[in-house]
Amino acid sequence: MDALFDIPIIGLVVQFAVYLFDQFPIVAPIIAAAAVPIVLGALCGFMNERSGVVNIGIEGMMLLAAFTAWWTASLSAQLIPTGPGPLGITPALLIGLACGIGAACLASLLHAWLSISVRADQIISGTIINIFAFGITGYLNLLISQQAPPAAGQFSKFLLPGSITQLPVVGFLVKSFVSVGPIAMTMLIGVIVLQVLLFRSRWGLRTRAVGEHPRAAETVGIDVVRLRYRNVILGGVFAGLAGAYLTIEFGNAFQSGMTNGRGFIALAALIFGRWTPIGAFGAAFLFAASVGLERSIRIAPPTGSLGELLTAVPGQFYGALPYLITIVVLAGVVGRSIPPKAVGLPYEREKTGG
Amino acid sequence: MTPELHSPALLEMRGITKRYPGVVANDGISLQIRAGEIHALLGENGAGKTTLMNVLYGLAAPDEGEILMEGQTIKIASPHDAIERGISMVHQHFMLVPVLSVADNILLGDEPMKNLVFVDRSVASARIRELGASFGWEIDPDRPVGQLSVGWQQRVEILKAIYRNAKVLVLDEPTAVLTPQETKEIFGVLRRLKAEGYAIIFISHKLYEVLEIADTITVIRRGKVVGSRQPAATNEDDLAELMVGREVELTVDRGESHPAGSMLEVEGIFVNDDRGREVVHDVTFEVRAGEIFGIAGVAGNGQDELVGAVTGLRRAHRGTIRLGGDDVTRADPRRLHKMGVGFVPGDRQRFGLVLSFPLSDNLVLNDYYHPPYARGLVRDDDAILRGAEAAIARYDVRTPSATVPSQTLSGGNQQKLIVAREFEGDVRLLVLDQPTRGLDVGSIEFIHRQAIARRDTGVAILLVSAELDEVLELSDRIGVMYRGRIVEILDGRSASREEVGLLMATGGRSSGIQQQIVETGS
Q: A212 contacts in B (CB within 8 Å)?
């Protein structure tokens, strides 16, 4: 078998998750919900980094999308007031979703232009996007908060009969992965599709080649610049979905700086997952599990001495867990993760030859 | 001479001029290549051969001139255009993606498809096996290229080029990384492709190779065509003079050496590479004062890590290294420098120089912190400059002044600058890693002379080079490195190219090259 399933950490993550689900039945949906924006953010990073572009602006792209999706959805809801259809879908929410994705793609276009055409430092380009997004969304939010439009609502979950979700073992899986809203479903499909495409399709082969050795790709007739542009902009779609998820699926309001580092944790998940969609998916669940742990201990601590032990630890510790795990992962404690070789290096077509 | 010589040219380049800031890389070059001909482009490093081929392959846009194929003017704006026209190229540096399989590398850019989305690898794999078998190569299409030896990577490059049904095949220094035996094999392949009607452009700076394989030889010097020869009507001296522009001594007379006692003793060392794999196993040798000990080997057989251990840049995790009797296994580079070790690193631009620093500062990188170059915490600019000017004069570094950044110098002058820094002072051991890679003939000659002069003053010299000719020319003794071991130590004056080449390729003296090389991967 090839690299498709060669991800050792998945086993570890699954074990941890099963243990948690066993201990705290309510934790499964919490974890799944917390994982969605991280996975989507990681998919954005995946699209960028596999083709050789570092993107630390995921956080900013998500924030822009979160604000844009929420605001445009609210405005459209005033213009076209309709009742929610299946999954809570309304035209206003769809417009919001489209605009959120559009905003993230615009930011990606800027990132692509700076890092591919201008050949600027890609870290700086990403930082610019983060700072810009934080400032502009905070400012606009403040401006409109005086006459805030009523929220447009949010996508709702695909509900299954209790007889299915209460099945032993598979119940919590179904509940976490099938009984979810449309953006979370898109995330699941995205992970599987991208994983298969990466190793089986022409696009995947070319993307890997360009991320590893762009010059070699160029010499067999591949347009490196065009492929990088396309991948970076498509990556924006996933950042857009991640942002929109926060304001029109998971919640229905925007707060300044609400992405709260998820974009960076997404990058950590990507690295931990060895730059594959499925790996990032597993890693994101590990991060999300620590979030789920904190919430479930607060809401419903387990009984017995385990519960006493867990509640004795200050709640802030659990709150800090995802960030602690990120540090541990990035420090390379869990095995060395080898990035695409050309990542972060601007590509120059003509160089002085001998 | 070939009968095709009077047939019309398949490919013609007319008046190609390519300028880069400050240099004219190609100055009105014209070439004609016929089908069924091997046309050699001969020239020194930096003469403009690669630039010319980059123009042909769409990697560089010419400022003037045109390219004709079968009499028609064609426009080649990108490698894609070149491939469409039937031009394939084996580049000087491998254009292979190490993490991808052999098959993926070969079909990249021209993928056979199962449907709109998915690549069909099975058809391609079968064709690659078949194509390889036709040359007597057993190719595993699913093996990652990064696991293959350089010799096999070169074969994959050639398969990649002909997989695309090319008519014109360009090979840019294809033998630079190969052993003599592998070179012979590749020559056999080229002769067969020629018979099949390919037009082949063969680029080299090795005279004997060009004389052996080419039907026509075009010599380029400083971006211009300076002459064209038939192999039958020329010889090495004639070509060398044409290539360099003056009479040259192709080999420096190494003279007698008078080795004294042992200076460097390496005893049973084991060294890991960056990824933590052990790549030097149980290596033992000594270098005596007043001798040149050469290490020959195909690149990537542990030489880099061995040099790292000897120069203090890497730690040997077992074994000992002694310098003049003192244990230096764990010494850092500064202590080694103080003990009299000079080091000319393999990658001069990354490890030998700070490119943006002026020449004068580069000359004191080892000694900037103590007198005469520093007084207490303050550097003495006057002393540094005076020292630099003296060194520049003594080592014939061609530069407008000692204060220009070292990146403005040519490769040869950069290397002389490093030599000026490392050869000076109370040196007892010199480690020369690829000391003449990519240099012009004049600089090579100069550096070889300097090395011999230092040997004669009683310095021990460890020479590591992938250039077999260089090792053979200079060394008193030769250690052949193969898969992390020194497999044999030979006398430098009696060893033959073939003998050393066979050891480099197989680690032994059997002739079962084929099978042995297959194992070299992993």
A: 97-100
Q: What region, left, alpha or beta, does residue B468 occupy, with left being phi > 0 and alpha being psi -120 to 50 degrees?
A: alpha
Counts for chain B of helices (H) and strands (E), in that order: 17, 22
Residue B378 covered by a domain: no
Q: What contacts A98, CB < 8 A, 6 or more positions away?
A: none
Q: Is B76 found in the same domain as B26?
A: yes
Query: What does the alpha-carbon distance between residue A82 and residue A257 come to, in Å, rounded to a whole number?
Result: 30
Rounded to an integer, what distance in angstroms lies between the CA atom of residue B398 and that of residue A156? 75
Task: Please give the residue of chain A at the shortest CA–CA distance from B50.
Answer: A354
Residues in chain B within 8 Å Cβ distance of A197: 117
Query: Closest partner residue to B95 among A205, A216, A223, by Cβ?
Result: A216
Please identify, among B244, B276, B298, the residue that sits at the C-terminal boundary of a domain: B244
B154 & B53 share domain: yes
Contact A217 B97 (CB under 8 A): yes
Question: Cβ distance B438 to B407 under 8 Å?
Answer: no
CB contact under 8 A, A223 and B78: yes
pLDDT in tens, B384-415: 999 999 999 999 998 889 999 998 888 889 99
Q: Which of B49, B108, B438 sits opposite A220 (nearest CB)?
A: B108
- Which of these, A41, A196, A193, A61, lies nearest to A126 by C-alpha position? A61
Identify which of A63, A71, A64, A62 has the alpha carbon closest to the alpha carbon of residue A92.
Answer: A71
Residue B461 β-bridge partners: B292, B430
> Do B48 and B144 belong together in one domain?
yes
Summarised one tens digit per residue, pLDDT across range B161-188 is 999 889 999 999 998 888 888 899 999 9
Report how far residue B329's alpha carbon sits from residue B340's, in angstroms, rounded to the nearest whole number: 15
> Is residue B266 located within the same domain as residue B240?
no
Which domains does chain A carry? 3-330 (1.10.3470)
Q: Give the domain range for residue B97.
A: 3-244
What's the token pair of residue B295? 């290490």
Residue A339 pLDDT: 85
The two tokens of residue A208 are 């890997």
Q: What is the CATH number of the domain that holds B476?
A: 3.40.50.300
Helix, strand, coil percentages, rounded to 5, for chain A: 70, 0, 30
| Count of structural domains within chain B | 2
The closest CB to that of B113, out of A202, A216, A352, belongs to A202
In a domain, B391, yes or no: no
For residue B349, being part of any structural domain is answered with: no
Angle at CA B336, nearest 5°, toward B330 and B339? 125
- What are the pLDDT digits (tens) for B295-312? 999 888 999 999 999 999
Tell me how far apart the alpha carbons of residues B186 and B191 are, in angstroms, rounded to a whole number: 9
Which ipTM did the prediction report?
A: 0.86
Q: Could you tell me if B495 and B501 are in contact, meaning their C-beta atoms sit under 8 angstroms apart?
A: no
Chain B residues within 8 A of A217 when measuring between CB atoms? 97, 108-109
**Are residues B59 and A218, on separate chains, in Cβ contact within 8 Å?**
yes
Residues of A in contact with B438 (CB under 8 A): 354
Structure tokens at B176: 């630079």
